Amino acid sequence: MQSLIQPRRNFLAVSGAGVLSATAVAVLAGRAAPAKAQTASMADVNILNVALGLEHEAIGAYELGAKSGLLQKPALDVAVLFQSHHKAHRDALAAAIASLGGKAVETKSLDDYAKALNAGTLKSQTDVLMLAARLELGATNAYLGVIPAFKDAKLGQVAARLAADETMHWTALSGTLSRALPATALSFGA
């Protein structure tokens, strides 16, 4: 499962040091951006598309969990709620990508997500919740990792809000699993 978490933690690595610059401001203001700035904007689109791909994965994971028959109420209700949050994250990321002139990455089939997440190994509600908690922790760390890369405070703010949602999801799932909360401060994003 570590292989599923690591891409979420390091999704900035795929785009190098490129961050949102005056390009996004120019695009949002309706002005054409210089070619060099457009390159930086495309780096941001790449970062956002990796994040969007991870949101697609989370939506698929919760869909698989809900359809598995392994989740009982109230865990099933929580999974459906968290899936709705990830759909809102997807929409926010897709809008940011479009505002930068990019094309949003497409979702994969549910079968593709089932294979990637090794859904066939899920045999109990605990298995499903543990998978969800691992994915949520990975998402928390990924979003916290991206915040410093954005020069545009608005994208940094969006990433911070997404990280807050992911942290809340992880906390709720950890409580359901009767796991202890972190014993030390500053335990996320490290």
Layout of SSEs?
Layout: H1 2-9, H2 22-28, H3 35-67, H4 75-99, H5 110-116, H6 125-146, H7 153-176
Helix pairs in contact: 1-6, 3-4, 3-6, 4-7, 6-7
Key phrases:
globular, 7 helices, mainly alpha, disordered N terminus, 190 residues, Ferritin
Notes on the structure:
With about 190 residues, the chain is an all-alpha fold. About 40% of the residues are buried.
Short note summarizing the structure:
The protein has 190 residues and is mainly alpha-helical.
Highest CATH level, the class: Mainly Alpha
Low-confidence segments? 1-37
Strand content: under 5%
Give a short account of the largest sheet: none
Order of helices and strands: HHHHHHH
User: Any idea how many domains?
Assistant: 1
Alpha carbon gyration radius: 17 Å
Measure the end-to-end span. 18 Å
CATH architecture: Up-down Bundle
- Overall morphology: globular
Q: Mean pLDDT score, rounded? A: 81
Number of strands: 0
Helix content: 55-70%
